Amino acid sequence: MDAKQREIADKIKKILVENLRLPEEDLTDDAKLFGDDIGLDSVDSLEIIAGIDQEFGVSMMGVDREHFQTIETLSKYVMDNLDK
Amino acid sequence: MKMNILDINKRIKQRPPFQMVERVDELEPGVYAKGIKNVSVNEPYFAGHFPDMPVMPGVLIIESLAQLCSLVIEGGADDPDTVYVLLKADAFKFVKAVVPGDTLTLEAKVTMAAAGLYKFAVKASVDGALRAKGELSFTAASRDKLYSKD
What we know:
The structure holds 2 protein chains of 2 kinds. Chain A is an all-alpha fold. Chain A has a single domain, classed as Non-ribosomal Peptide Synthetase Peptidyl Carrier Protein, Chain A, CATH 1.10.1200.10. Chain A has 3 helices and no strands. Chain A has helices spanning 3-20, 42-56, 71-81. Chain B is α+β, with helices and mostly antiparallel strands. Chain B is 17% helix and 41% strand. Chain B is built from 3 helices and 6 strands, in the order H-E-E-H-E-E-E-E-H. Chain B has a 6-stranded antiparallel beta sheet with strand order 1-2-4-5-6-3. The A-B interface holds A 19, 21, 43, 46-47, 49-54, 59-61 and B 87-88, 90, 112, 114-117, 119, 137, 139.
């Protein structure tokens, strides 16, 4: 993960902590957000989409679920789609 | 902006006995609203909640606040195929019981609006004293999707 993606990943982590009230220590870059690790659901995914839209101006509405798997995949998608 | 019951009826579809905002004293679309709901002993739910001790159910305080939120959401009623539905009720506290004779002052303030999601900080008070507070989130949904099985 380069410095740019690191910065994005940290902001996404902050969104998850503040908007979804998740404990920061559980949110490693590769923790499965919707799997056994964190256990998010479809309601949470809408909040993630809104948080990312607000923070980065990147729309993830209708984006394939593989991009939602971890903070790493989310940050990569945001980085690849900034300024598009 | 202010709204009386006739104005409110043009904007929301709930009707008695499930209409829980009776007057709006302040409305800034997309930002904030303040309104009232009068709590009367004649309300049907007091017959059972509870027979000897009428107390307004907390979920109906949430409903009152949710109805006020739907008035804040801009253009909520413009597109007949899109409805805003309650998505999440977070961090609610019911500080003190709401009983017949109370006038609930409802307040809803938008804390986030992005990607079809609205989040509100809401509170209900009586005579200036807090009775309940929490957060409510809404999302846009297509009417058809509400009735689909998946």
